[in-house]
Amino acid sequence: MKFSTTKVVATRRSTQGSSASRFLRRNGKLPGIVYGGKGEAVSIEMDHNPILLALKVESFHSSILDLELDGKSEQVLLRDFQMHAYKPLVLHIDFQRVDANTALHTKVPLHFVGQESCPAVKLDGAVINHVLNEVEVSCLPKDLPSFIEVDLSGLTIGHSIHINDIKLPAGVTIVLHGQDNPVVATAAKVGGSAADDAAPAAGAPAAPAA
Prior knowledge:
Elements: E1 5-12, H1 18-26, E2 29-35, E3 42-47, H2 48-54, E4 64-69, E5 72-83, E6 90-97, E7 104-113, H3 119-122, E8 127-130, E9 134-139, E10 148-151, E11 160-162, E12 173-174, E13 183-188
Parallel strand pairs: 1-4, 2-6, 7-10
Antiparallel strand pairs: 1-3, 2-3, 4-5, 5-6, 7-9, 8-13, 9-12, 11-13
């Protein structure tokens, strides 16, 4: 869950418009933009294939990136990208600058551990349903985790893991957008449904962790 930084290299893009973007793509380049922070929005271009490979790595989507732009480095987050409908081709990519002293909001993946050894699976042969696979967090850039671990080792039939049961890294809070205490994972009997073994209402205690 440690903060990590990945480096990407770009140059300023001198031409604009859809025809210019198509020209870049035909020549193995990827058009994009960097915006936010105290700087102006800058149109950029970068080598396509390294980004296509990077997008397949989970941490690239939730880590602070070092963007080297014309020899100068700044920290950014991946904010959006567009893929071709059926080709392995990235059409456009967006990065947002981050300020070391300003809290950011971004989504972080959940990593589930202890699933195979939890009582629900080991004793009752239950199926674990992952209701959430990522959460939105708020934190300073230095505190941003590449993922958040969810311990399922104490999960039993008839119980669930809720957001409030997750141990968060220091400096990180979860943004709930008005939700009280949503379910993260449930244990269901084989042949049943998650509703059959639904957890107690939000706020009810989860099974004790191992």
